[in-house]
Every structure is written in C-alpha cells, then in structure tokens.
Inverse folding.
C-alpha cells in the first residue's frame, strides 16, 4: 500500500487532546504537548502560534523556521509541516478552518485574505514588546472564552476575537513599498488570485496563458505583475510549485517516479526527469535517496 503525507484536520487536534469537540472549525489552546508529532503532515486549516517560552523548530514546505519567545508563526492550509525539534516550548495556538469566517458579516472577506496567510509569505513574525502586550490580550481572551461552557454566543464572540487578532497582526505585519497604494492593492489582488488558482490547478495546467486567461490579463502583464510583487515570473511560480510538490511526493510517499510523472501529466517519465534535474540539479531518484 502506498503511503502519502498525512492530511490533518482540526478534528485531528481534538483527537490527540482526547477531548470531545462541540465545534470542529476552530481550536484554541496554550498547551500543545500532546499535539507534537515528528511525522510530516499537511494540515487543512489556518493556525497562529505565539511563543512565550522555549522554541519550536519546524520546516514548512522545505523552509526552516525557529519560533522563539515573543514571536508569531503562521501556518497555511495545505502547507507541508515537519517538526524538527521543540525545546521546552510553551505558547498559544489559535486554529480555524477555511470555512470558519463564511458568514454574512461585511468584514469577512478582509479577514480571510491576510498577507501573512498568502502562499510564499514569511511564516515568522518578530514582535516588539509593546506589540506583544497588545496581542497578548487577544490570546488570553480567546483562551478564557474558549473554556466557557454555557454561553449561547460563544462561537460568535470567538469569531470576533479571532478577527480582531488578525486585524491587529495585519496592522503590525511588515509592508514594503507603501507608495503607489492603488496599484499595489490591485497588483496584490492579481497575485493572490493567481496563487489560489495555481494551488488548485498546477497538477494539470502548466501554461502561463491558462492562468492569464482566467485572470483576464495578458501573459506578459501577469508575469510583469508577479515579477514586480514577488521577484518571479508566472512561469517560475508554476515550475517552483511543481518542483515543491514533486519533492513532497518523492520524500513522503512510495509512489514510483513514473506514477509521480503521471500525476503531473508529463507526457512521459523522461520529460519529468529532465524537468526535475534541470530545476534541482538532481534526478528524482537521486533526490529521493538523498533525503
């Protein structure tokens, strides 16, 4: 039987805590000791971790981070998560599903499009002392409210507190080039929509023209926007996404190289092997042996 990287949900978190869940679209705790796993996983939800003691070393989609006291870390749905080490770690964890904010409240679209949850964004955020104090209020309020048992408005209050937390972080999140705000806002929308489309379609759509057509721009203009905002062209983003996911499958599954090539709809094994070697310097087989 072929093994794949484990997909985890918020329900998985409750199961590891041995707690009966009333709601499975959010999860709040200040003790993650029973949640720690060295298995490579792919969560399907958003999370924010706030460290106040020890440290948490992790590899997120092959990028290493070290969460230390007073700092935040962001986890995105579908991101590959591999814990390296946790040394006397203590901190808050706030988790919510992709559907948690699907209500009729007017500010909801802004809540779920935060820059720190965009694919490719920095997952670690350092906080000044005064900012730590500001965010500390939200984490403690969420923890306290989550422990209440008899409150018919509990979920609404928690949703509002998480939204407030996200907006506070947004105000603190480093923003480059605040000039030309109108164009930047429009460009960021294109980038966000491109990345969402890429996440959904990269297995079968590898041509820049496909994404440009869906976003109602020319291929050249799409690449210009992406190059300005991210430093990479549309083609580079597409290829990098394929390489990242191919590495995940080579490292975390027993699928053959031919089967992986078929998943990405390469015409044959040789095409996939050439593509992978050209981008990484290794053949898929040698990359698998090197991990």
């Amino acid at each position: 039987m072929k093994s794949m990287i484990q997909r985890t949900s918020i329900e998985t978190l409750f199961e590891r805590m041995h707690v009966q869940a009333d709601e499975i679209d959010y999860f709040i705790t200040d003790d993650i000791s029973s949640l720690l796993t060295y298995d490579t996983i792919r969560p399907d939800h958003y999370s924010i971790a706030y460290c106040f003691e020890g440290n948490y070393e992790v590899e997120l989609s092959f990028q290493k981070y070290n969460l230390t006291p007073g700092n935040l870390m962001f986890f995105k749905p579908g991101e590959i998560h591999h814990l390296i080490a946790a040394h006397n770690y203590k901190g808050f964890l706030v988790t919510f599903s992709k559907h948690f904010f699907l209500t009729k409240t007017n500010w909801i679209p802004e809540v779920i499009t935060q820059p720190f949850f965009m694919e490719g964004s920095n997952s670690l955020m350092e906080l000044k002392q005064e900012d730590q104090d500001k965010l500390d209020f939200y984490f403690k309020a969420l923890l306290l409210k989550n422990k209440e048992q008899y409150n018919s408005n509990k979920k609404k209050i928690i949703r509002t507190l998480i939204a407030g937390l996200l907006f506070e972080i947004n105000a603190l999140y480093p923003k480059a080039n605040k000039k030309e705000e109108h164009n930047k806002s429009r460009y960021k929308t294109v980038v966000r929509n491109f990345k969402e489309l890429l996440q959904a379609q990269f297995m079968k759509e590898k041509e820049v023209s496909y994404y440009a057509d869906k976003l109602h721009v020319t291929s050249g203009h799409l690449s210009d926007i992406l190059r300005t905002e991210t430093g990479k062209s549309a083609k580079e983003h597409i290829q990098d996404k394929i390489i990242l996911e191919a590495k995940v499958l080579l490292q975390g599954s027993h699928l053959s190289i031919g089967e992986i090539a078929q998943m990405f709809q390469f015409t044959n094994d040789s095409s996939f092997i050439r593509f992978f070697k050209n981008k990484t310097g290794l053949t898929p087989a040698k990359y698998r042996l090197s991990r």
User: Anything to note?
Assistant: The chain has a mean pLDDT of 86.
